[in-house]
Write a structure and sequence with these properties.
Number of strands: 19
Oligomer: single chain
Helix content: 25-40%
Structural class: alpha/beta
Number of domains: 2
CATH superfamily of the largest domain: Adenylosuccinate Synthetase, subunit A, domain 1
Strand order of the largest sheet: 9-7-5-2-10-1-11-15-18-19
Radius of gyration: 21 Å
Bound molecules: guanosine-5'-diphosphate, 6-O-phosphoryl inosine monophosphate, magnesium ion
Largest sheet: 10 strands, mixed
Length: 436
């Protein structure tokens, strides 16, 4: 087995960065295939915290090459800043980091539009609560076939025509807020020329690169961004992001066939969080939700916004497992749940409500208590555990309950933010072995 996909199974922020960093030691290539710097993936190594937004979270290993594939939208200013920051702690020269010629560019006017639209919609049903990074408007331009790909940065004549086309299309909307004059073609061209200069040695055909690596038997890790419930097609539309966040996004986002995907690990917290607007059936608008936020440090890695918190939602997780064809489930932040001292879990919705057929907006959770977490020994035992057998009995029972409910075996358990605070049930590029 040489390819593994890691995807978020909830509403993002499940701990993808932590999991990817923990297993990337075994990978030759780590590839981001969707989203942009709306993502914030946190790694903690030797007590040092690093947040990646565009660069894959395997970047701290000297032998692991990183790729930004075609399905991404890339803000070059953000990428430049991130590379500069990471270079202080990791090797990130042109060989270590490659960028697809087919990826789309987030221009400053995309960021502006994202912010203006959120401001206009504030408080109303149309407010999505986006990260305001220009991700939605860049994907919108891509679907409208006026997007600007990385390759266009190297052809000034073509680029000028594309920028003019874009400013024509969005000019009236910008003008409504008096912002049209802020974006001049020549200024944008000058910025793009700067980007082209430093991007030139990094660009590649990422589909070919990944395909060749797989054919050579190299181990390739595909790192998802966001989560299943934020998927453009299958999530809580319209309260979603603008890309395919499920495992299927790997094929279109990288440019490889589904026959080359060997395994898919979904990542879920031991509870649920969401940031931004939209349905969240198990949300706790009470002191327990607040306590979870405090214990889990549930504030966005990208925007710093407070995340809403609630119990684990098994029907939603089961749907996420189906959407991505998960072969393993990784449960993170079990230590946070243990510190709470009580655990409840949503096992179904009232009235036979089905998340796929009926959506999540009107779903009312049926909650069940999970016993044993009130034992004061549990948090300490759990924090020290590095093998399945060392986990407290209540934690093992909870993990078994999850695996049974979603019919996916546990592949990894995370008991702290650090790289080593991890229980691996199998080698990442082997099939999972712990079935309930
Ligand atoms: P991502 O977007 O999926 O990579 O997740 P984020 O980095 O946005 O948010 C996850 C947060 O939880 C980060 O602060 C991580 O350092 C932290 N984290 C990940 N796994 C664990 C865990 O098992 N226990 C604790 N306490 N924190 C964790
Ligand atoms: P990672 O990869 C959590 C949410 C936003 C908003 C919606 C649309 O760190 O898990 P967008 O800016 O994408 O147009 O916003 O999606 N969102 C995320 N929530 N984690 C993320 O990324 C997210 N990326 C987008 O809050 O509700
Ligand atoms: Mg995040």
């Amino acid at each position: 087995m040489s390819t593994l996909v890691v995807v978020g199974a909830q509403w993002g922020d499940e701990g993808k960065g932590k999991v990817v960093d923990a297993i990337a030691a075994d990978a030759d290539l780590v590839v981001r295939y969707a989203g942009g710097n709306n993502a914030g993936h946190t790694l903690v190594v030797d007590g040092r915290k690093v947040v990646t937004h565009l660069v894959p979270s395997g970047c701290l290993y000297p032998h692991t090459r990183c790729v930004l594939a075609a399905g991404m939208v890339i803000d070059p200013d953000v990428l430049a800043a991130e590379i500069a920051e990471l270079r202080a702690i990791a090797r990130l020269e042109h060989d270590e980091l490659r960028v697809s010629l087919h990826a789309h560019v987030i221009f400053p006017y995309h960021r502006e539009l994202d912010g203006l639209r959120e401001d206009r919609a504030a408080g109303g049903a149309a407010a999505i609560g986006t990260t305001r990074r220009g991700v939605g408007p860049a994907y919108e331009a891509k679907a409208a076939r006026r997007g600007i790909q990385i390759r266009d940065l190297f052809d000034e004549v073509r680029l000028r025509a594309r920028i003019e086309h874009n400013l024509d299309a969005i000019g009236p909307e910008l003008a409504r807020d008096g912002r049209a004059a802020a974006f001049m073609v020549d200024d944008l061209l000058a910025r793009a020329s700067g980007w082209a200069g430093w991007l030139k040695p990094m660009v590649c055909d990422a589909s070919q690169l990944c395909h060749d690596a797989i054919r050579r038997g190299q181990r390739v890790l595909f790192e998802g961004a966001q989560g299943a419930m934020l998927d453009l097609d299958h999530g809580t539309y319209p309260y979603v992001t603008s890309s395919s966040t499920t495992a299927g996004g790997v094929c279109t986002g990288v440019g490889i066939g589904p026959t080359l995907v060997d395994a898919v690990w979904g990542i879920s917290k031991a509870y649920t969080t969401r940031v931004g607007a939209g349905p969240f059936p198990t949300r706790l608008d009470d002191a327990i939700g607040q306590r979870l936020r405090e214990l889990g440090g549930e504030f966005g890695a990208t925007t710093g916004r407070a995340r809403d918190c609630g119990w684990l939602d098994l029907p939603a997780l089961r749907m996420a497992a189906r959407l991505s064809g998960m072969t393993g489930i990784c449960i993170t932040k079990l230590d946070v749940l243990a510190a709470l001292g009580m655990v409840r879990v949503c096992v179904a919705y009232e009235d036979g409500h089905d998340p796929g057929r009926d959506g999540l907006a009107a779903a009312r959770p049926i909650l069940q208590d999970v016993a044993g977490f009130d034992d004061p020994e549990v948090p300490g035992q759990l924090a020290r555990a590095r093998r399945w057998a060392e986990l407290p009995g209540c934690a093992r029972a909870y993990l078994d309950l999850i695996a049974e409910a979603i019919e996916v075996p546990v592949a990894l358990v995370s008991v702290g933010p650090g790289r080593d605070e991890t229980i691996l049930m199998c080698r990442p590029f082997d099939p999972p072995v712990h079935a309930p």
